[in-house]
Design goal:
PHAF1, PHAF1/BROMI, single chain
Length: about 425
């Protein structure tokens, strides 16, 4: 049985590990993987139809704990203990829940004090006692009537007209004063662990198409003093097509991994008559997992030729390898009998409502290839670049007719964005 320390508005953990509010999903999963012999039977819960409408949940079924991550930024928003019989809990080093100590209303009063009366929810038959960043829910289904108390009564929970022995059913740790209005806080400094994270990524364009990326980066920096003096550092870096390996290393630092391509599946699109001749060397990627970005280098010139931006959607085969990249891509849109305009594609963009015989509105976009979930493929050629929209349901190259997508269907957000001069 886990023995954990409760820190209101901050964390739940012990001396070996800690789940901290604002922690990225990948770090929480890494803790579970490292301690898999102690923490077992973990479920990953998410919505396949609308992944942005519901929180992403890690359910520790053996320990009665749920970790709720914000659907957008994928940082820890709420820690819920829904079965207190499976875990030991303490506050300031003193247990208030264990096999020998029941988490009764009197015990909570003794451990945390009573600064104001709680709130009774008659529909759920639960009595909620709220502190800043911490809430307890007491089950009242055995009561013959709802609790009665004066709102201004402030002489301790034991003085309220609540039956003795009522025990906690659920406990919540969150940021702020209200569980209903809580949001995932920013990433705490203790979670950086020497890594650099991307707050946002903007795709830069010139007259010919995409020219590179501008990254707004976050790091935990500190001066010559102790770690207690550490503070958040925010800075910007730009990487362009044609930059050398040395340029990228000086801008972004060393990658987490270097991956060499075994074959180039895009040779079929090359105008070279020697495209079928195997090359003596292979292109390679710099993988920046915490930025959610891959950078492809040409094997001969060792210069940047492509960027890959990952959105880390649940269900994707690369899920939890990369952190979500919060990108913005300005797209030059051309419509028939209309002037061109610029729109922005983001991590959460959806396909337009279908207006053409292909089931999607035909647009001209130069230099961007997108993989979108779910339904069918669409290829738009504009000069030197190709826009590929792969919608799950059939494979690229399938010549079957494209049916119309129903208005408002599903959450069709991009999974992987590939940006290059030519494909």
């Amino acid at each position: 049985m886990l023995d954990l320390e409760v820190v209101p508005e901050r964390s739940l953990g012990n001396e070996q590990w800690e789940f901290t509010l604002g922690m990225p999903l990948a770090q929480a999963v890494a803790i579970l993987q490292k301690h898999c012999r102690i923490i077992k039977n973990v479920q990953v819960l998410y919505s396949e139809q609308s992944p942005l409408s519901h929180d992403l949940i890690l359910n520790l079924t053996q320990d009665g704990i749920k970790l709720l991550f914000d659907a957008f930024n994928q940082r820890l928003k709420v820690i819920e203990v829904y079965d207190l019989t499976k875990v030991k809990l303490k506050y300031c080093g003193v247990h208030f829940n264990s096999q020998a100590i029941a988490p009764t209303i009197e015990q909570i009063d003794q451990s945390f004090g009573a600064t104001h009366p709680g709130v009774y929810n008659s529909a759920e038959q639960l009595f909620h006692l709220n502190f800043r960043g911490l809430s307890f829910s007491f089950q009242l289904d055995s009561w013959t009537e709802a609790p009665k108390y004066e709102p201004n009564f402030a002489h301790g929970l034991a003085s309220l007209q609540i039956p003795h022995g009522a025990t906690v059913k659920r406990m919540y740790i969150y940021s702020g004063n209200s569980l209903q209005d809580t949001k995932a806080p920013g990433m705490p400094l203790s979670c950086f662990l020497g890594n650099v994270y991307a707050e946002s990524v903007d795709v830069l364009r010139d007259g010919t198409g995409p020219s590179g990326l501008r990254l707004r980066l976050l790091a935990a920096g500190c001066g010559p003093g102790l770690l207690a003096d550490a503070k958040m550092r925010v800075f910007e870096r730009s990487v362009y097509f044609g930059d050398s390996c040395q340029d990228v290393l000086s801008m972004l630092g060393s990658p987490h991994k270097v991956f060499y391509k075994s074959e180039d599946k895009m040779k079929i699109h090359s105008p070279s008559p020697h495209k079928q001749v195997p090359s003596k060397c292979n292109d390679y990627f710099f993988n920046y997992f915490t930025l959610g970005v891959d950078i492809l280098f040409d094997a001969n010139t060792h210069k940047v030729k492509k960027f890959v931006l990952h959105t880390n959607y649940p269900g994707h085969y690369n899920f939890n390898i990369y952190h979500r990249c919060e990108f913005k891509i300005p797209l030059a849109i051309k419509k028939e009998n209309a002037d061109g305009q610029t729109e922005t594609c983001t991590t959460y963009s959806k396909p337009r409502r279908p207006s053409s015989k292909y089931g999607l509105e035909m647009t001209e976009v130069s230099g961007v290839a997108t993989n979108i979930l779910p339904v069918l493929p669409l290829c738009i050629r504009t000069g030197p670049a190709v826009l590929h929209v792969y919608l799950a349901g059939c494979t690229p190259g399938d010549s079957s007719p494209l049916p119309h997508l129903p208005p408002g269907s599903g959450a069709l957000s991009p999974l992987v964005i590939q940006i290059g001069r030519r494909f």
